[in-house]
Each structure stands twice: as C-alpha cells, then as structure tokens.
Design the sequence.
C-alpha cells in the first residue's frame, strides 16, 4: 500500500513513481507466483492438506490473478 499511495505523503519524481508501481505489482503478484511453483517440489500439493486430497485446484485462479496483476502493471507503465 505504501508504494502505491506514497505520492500523497512525499513529493516524488516520475521515475520514482514508476519504480514504486513496478515494485507494488511485483510484491502483489509474488504470492500467486510462489503458489504456482508448488507443483515443482516433490511430494507437495498445490493446496493445504486440510482442504482436500491430491491435486492443484488453485492453478487456474493463480494463473489468472498473476496474469491480471502483470497485465495491469504493463498497461499502467507503458
């Protein structure tokens, strides 16, 4: 939140605003990216054990939300 709203509290340059948006997009999407890597670890599932058996039902959701985050930052930064 600080990266996207700091212009209200501090005077910033256009370059710093651009960097802040890039970092906000990255830190906002890192959860989805790490969730997608769960499939590469041996004996790991893409979900918590208390929520079901084997499988990776969150894959479409993780891919969609990560893509939306990166698409939004691309459109904002072009």
Sequence:
């Amino acid at each position: 939140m600080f990266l996207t709203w700091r212009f209200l509290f501090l005077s910033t340059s256009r370059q710093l605003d651009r960097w802040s948006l890039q970092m906000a997009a990255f830190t906002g999407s890192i959860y989805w990216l790490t969730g997608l890597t769960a499939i590469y670890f041996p004996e790991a599932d893409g979900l918590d054990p208390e929520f079901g058996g084997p499988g990776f039902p969150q894959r479409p959701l993780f891919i969609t939300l990560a893509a939306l985050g990166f698409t939004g930052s691309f459109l904002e930064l072009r």
